[in-house]
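User: Teach me something about this protein's shape.
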Amino acid sequence: MSTAPQIAVVALSHSPLMVNDTGHVEGRVFREGVARVKAAVEAFSPTLVVFFGPDHERALTGIAPCFTVVESAGGYAEWGLLEEDYDVPRDHAVALGEHLVAAGVDIAVAANLRLDHGFGLSMKDLFGSPAAVPVVPVLINCIGRPLATAARTAALGTAVGEFLRTKIGDGERVLVVGSGGISHTPPSQPEGADEMSETERQRLLFEQLAGAAKAIDPEWDRDFLARLGSADWAKLSELTAADLAAAGTGGAEVRTWIAAAFTGGTPLTTVAYEPVTEWITGMGIAASDTLVKS
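Assistant: First, the predicted structure itself:
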């Protein structure tokens, strides 16, 4: 009789502006946290990654489902990232999509998506390359209306966890990643951003950096991290749209953290947090005890 695979979870922020800090003088607390988690991930040696990430109106244009299981993907060339192909095990992706529908979670499925830095930056931080490990990307819409509720996002995570525990065999080691947030309001995402060129987006971003830095809300971030690590962590599913909106437009990306936590089924311990004004984002990392205590 087969048993469930080992499952570990890590949720972390990303900011494309960190790639400009080639001297690594900014965000040192966050960078040190990433280094610790990366080492723990390498020790865990995942055989499969399930990655919850957001899009920034690049893959999702014209239509934006709440949840999309990606059956094949390539990288989006921006912020130092390459157009590398992701190593997506299509059989797992197809099976996951079928399981979610059977579980009552409405999803879309997509092939040949170009995933932007919402996936690429954290894939690079943790693994060095999108092709370094088999990964099933699950795209959570965090920009285009309507956004999924926290409860529905939690239901997605719970169903993904059921899939992993019943369909992925004994001996497998599954790393669940959530990437996005925490509090931020990027000026490069105004209405109609999907029709802007990458040059126009970046020009707008750099013109409004000072104002965007003021959108960081350390109090909101620390409260979210505390909830995520508490005995009552499952109450994250009760967060309202107004609760999430308080973290700014980019704060909507914590839905990826909620999905990852409910997939793992355990609270996540804060590894690092700091507001990085140069990156206009509250930068945090949380992980399951499987990684934190390794």
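Now, about its shape. The first strand starts at residue 6 and ends at 12. The mean pLDDT is 90. If you'd like, I can walk through any region in more detail.
User: That's plenty for now, thanks!
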